[in-house]
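Hello forum,

I keep getting stuck at the same step: I have a sequence, I want structure tokens, and every attempt I make locally crashes halfway through. Rather than fight my setup again tonight, could one of you with a working pipeline run this one for me? It's a single chain of 174 residues.
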Amino acid sequence: MPQQLATDRELLDGVLRPYRDHSRYLREAEVTGRPDTVSARGRFGIAESCYIDDTGHFNAVEFNICYNQLGYYLIAKCVEDRLFEAFSTWTMADFWERQLSDVLIYRLGSRFRRMINPRAFEGEVVFLEPRVSVRPGRPAVMSMETTCSFWDDEGGSADGTVKLAFTRLPQLTA
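Reply #2:
Ran it on my machine without issues. Output:
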């Protein structure tokens, strides 16, 4: 049976703290944990773009920012609620220390099927079980395949795949 976790407002505020006020697009998020995947569904609103005049639609830069915000929230929930074994040695202090510096987008691909209204839309990020790679003489790296999708009530739709890499893993540093 999937485990469902409602929006943790304090955690969400912490995850969004590094963002400028006008670029905090994620409003709420619900996490679902399953044995080999975890996912987060979020509600977003972009009153105005943080970098360009209004295009009238959700664009590639906003796709990346929204993925990051929902993805960081999901990583934080993985750490806080031990949703994957690979995060079992992480503490929340480890997450806060590494959120910006050691969670890297290794590869990102996106497809825009129909224009999305940026004022009100939803999204989902799905994480597959992370893998830790250890090579002699090199620091361990954790990688994770993810998918994401965004949509609105008017039929707007976009989706993508993202591969994440995590550096400076807590269990290997002291």
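The first strand starts at residue 3 and ends at 5. If your local run keeps crashing, start a new thread with the error log.
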